[in-house]
Amino acid sequence: MHARRFPSGMSEIDSAEDLFALFEQSYDERVLHTHRVRILQCFGRLIHELQDRLPEASDGELRALYAKALHEAYSACTRPDAKPERSLRPRQDLVTLRLGPGR
């Protein structure tokens, strides 16, 4: 297994909007608001597959491939059959972290 590499600028990402700006991708705010989690999850799966296939890609190649993956993830949510996300409910297989008293 190779070490995960990311294009330059990824460490400064604080939001989905920052991600779209980094990869110079346009988006409709309504689509992003409605499908934010789905877009980010799909993007995450796509880049995971890319990293496994292209461990030696240059920064420029990674940027182009990540931009394409983000576009693909976003486009999947702009189709007429895309359904809005339901409210997020806790899943049983996830761990919930809470701060202890006085923190």
Protein model, in words:
The structure is a single chain. The protein has 3 helices and no strands. Helix 2 packs across helix 3. The longest helix is centred in the middle third of the chain and has 25 residues.
In this structure, how is the largest beta sheet organized? none
Query: What ranges have pLDDT less than 50 throughout 5 or more consecutive residues?
Result: 87-91
What structural category characterises the helix and strand content?
A: mainly alpha
How large is the count of helical segments? Answer: 3
- The best one-word shape is globular
- Return Rg in Å: 16 Å
The pLDDT mean sits at: 80
Strand content: under 5%
Task: Provide the helix percentage.
Answer: 40-55%
Oligomerization state: single chain
String of helices and strands: HHH
Number of strands: 0
Intertermini distance: 39 Å
Short description:
The protein is an all-alpha fold and 103 residues long.
Keywords for this entry:
49% helix, globular, 103 residues, mainly alpha
How would the blueprint of this fold be written?
Elements: H1 16-22, H2 29-53, H3 59-76
